[in-house]
């Protein structure tokens, strides 16, 4: 028997526990700043066991996956689930892997991490790159470690590609030898140092990967990896099959040979689309009505900037160690890129800024965060393995449902209507509200509300 969650004060799923702004008596979906606490990466192993034994009557180990858009409360939900189920959390966040990037990534607090073991947090320096392939190996190894201790893996995060590869597997692309990696680095390093992105793309296209033209600008890691694959195999990355694509084709084939679509997560009877995967994944996507989510995100952005030792201080540190906006994985992260660009402009002005410039930066930060949440929702809308849950529902109901789902043995999981979140917008009114949405500033309403930020910039950003 699992311990049931008793009712708590207030309704709705609580989010991360950052300090509430003094002017607002409410719980904000944010996380407290904490100083980086480096943890060692998982030691290398000779073999990475990617599957569990499923022969005979042996059952696959269950893994809970909690995802959702930024600001939806997935980390808090994962934390409470881990407490109830005696679990450990594996972070699937592409920014929380970096030491020192705490406030902007809404990293779990030191208190939370003492209560429940967390994996894949603070494992890299911000100058390092990190990829979905590296995450697959690290997260699968962490999962096996958790299972080996007899505990429940709870994977939580909103990085869609990381989770897709984690669940379905990564492409079997060759790993570059040291010699090839060194050769590729030598080919691209001068172009990167001179910021000649277009010339570098042309080089990789001529080498055999026309899709390099569609890479995000300045994503040097992916460009370098593409050239390594070409040099190692003679083929571009697109030549290697992606397990998720095979899964979708297989699922579509099954659907075309049956008169029902009961194998989809929202159906009343499930033919469990995860039965051919390495683990028994129980996946949930947590989100709120879009307008409510946007308001929460906007307030969260403001709160990250209220303390000068928060996001702005972390972005300043990135600049001080020689990184530039949009240079690598860490500096492309939403919040950090905008903050670094803003602080660079302040430094160019001799450590000065105006409230108007600060508000323009805040607006850009909020807009980028909302757009990111929209992209996350779009991405996971096409992921059939996820059950969508309404984050505005009472917390104890969501927890108890997921716990029941974890212990279910039938494979016929049905989300009750009271907890189900629709994947699409609800009619013309909501569509209109989304199109006409404008952020409402809560904490920086007046110019004097920015005074402490202006003073901090004057005292720290003169160069």
TrEMBL record:
Record key words, sorted: ATP-binding, Cytokinin biosynthesis, Magnesium, Nucleotide-binding, Transferase, tRNA processing
Domain of life (superkingdom): Eukaryota
Catalytic activity: adenosine(37) in tRNA + dimethylallyl diphosphate = N(6)-dimethylallyladenosine(37) in tRNA + diphosphate
Family annotation (InterPro entries): Dimethylallyltransferase (IPR039657), IPT (IPR018022), P-loop_NTPase (IPR027417)
UniProt keyword tRNA processing, yes or no: yes
Disordered: annotated segments: 1-20
Entries under Gene3D superfamilies matching the protein: 1.10.20.140, P-loop containing nucleotide triphosphate hydrolases (3.40.50.300)
GO biological process, one term: cytokinin biosynthetic process
Any GO molecular function: tRNA dimethylallyltransferase activity
Record bears the keyword tRNA processing: yes
Obligatory cofactor(s): Mg(2+)
Enzyme Commission code: 2.5.1.75
Family to which this protein belongs: Belongs to the IPP transferase family.
Name assigned to this protein: tRNA dimethylallyltransferase
């Amino acid at each position: 028997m699992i311990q049931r969650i008793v009712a708590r004060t207030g309704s709705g799923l609580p989010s991360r526990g950052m300090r509430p702004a003094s002017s607002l008596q409410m719980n904000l979906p944010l996380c407290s700043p904490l100083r980086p606490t480096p943890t060692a990466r998982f030691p290398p192993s000779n073999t990475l066991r990617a599957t569990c034994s499923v022969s005979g009557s042996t059952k696959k180990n269950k893994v809970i996956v909690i995802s959702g858009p930024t600001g939806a409360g997935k980390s808090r939900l994962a934390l409470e689930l881990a407490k109830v189920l005696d679990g450990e959390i594996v972070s699937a966040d592409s920014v929380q892997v970096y030491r020192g990037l705490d406030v902007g990534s809404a990293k779990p607090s030191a208190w939370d991490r003492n209560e429940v073991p967390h994996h894949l947090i603070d494992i890299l320096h911000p100058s390092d790159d990190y990829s979905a392939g590296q995450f697959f190996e690290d997260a699968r190894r962490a999962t096996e470690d958790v299972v080996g201790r007899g505990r429940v893996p709870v994977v939580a995060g909103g990085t869609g590609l990381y989770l897709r590869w984690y669940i379905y597997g990564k492409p079997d692309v060759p790993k570059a030898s040291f010699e090839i990696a060194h050769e590729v680095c030598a080919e691209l390093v001068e172009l990167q140092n001179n910021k000649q992105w277009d010339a570098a793309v042309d080089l990789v296209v001529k080498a055999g990967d026309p899709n390099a033209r569609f890479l995000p600008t300045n994503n040097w890691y992916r460009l370098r990896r593409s050239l390594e694959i070409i040099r190692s195999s003679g083929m571009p990355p697109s030549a290697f099959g992606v397990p998720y694509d095979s899964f979708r084709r297989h699922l579509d084939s099954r659907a075309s040979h049956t008169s029902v679509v009961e194998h989809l997560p929202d159906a009343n009877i499930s033919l469990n689309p995860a039965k051919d995967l390495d683990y028994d994944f129980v996946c949930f996507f947590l989100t709120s009505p879009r307008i409510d989510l946007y308001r929460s995100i906007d307030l969260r952005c403001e709160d990250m900037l209220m303390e000068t030792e928060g996001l702005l201080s972390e972005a300043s540190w990135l600049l001080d160690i020689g990184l530039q906006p949009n240079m690598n994985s860490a500096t492309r992260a939403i919040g950090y890129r905008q903050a670094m660009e803003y602080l660079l402009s302040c430094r160019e002005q001799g450590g000065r800024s105006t409230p108007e410039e600060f508000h323009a930066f805040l607006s850009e930060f909020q807009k980028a965060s909302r757009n990111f949440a929209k992209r996350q929702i779009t991405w996971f809308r096409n992921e059939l393995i996820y059950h969508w849950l309404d984050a505005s529902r009472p917390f104890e109901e969501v927890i108890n449902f997921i716990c029941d789902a974890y212990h279910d043995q039938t494979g016929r999981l049905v989300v009750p209507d009271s907890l189900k979140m629709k994947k699409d917008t609800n009619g013309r009114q909501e569509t209109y509200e989304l199109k006409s949405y404008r952020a409402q500033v809560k904490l920086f309403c007046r110019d004097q509300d920015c005074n402490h930020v202006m003073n901090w910039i004057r005292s720290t950003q003169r160069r």
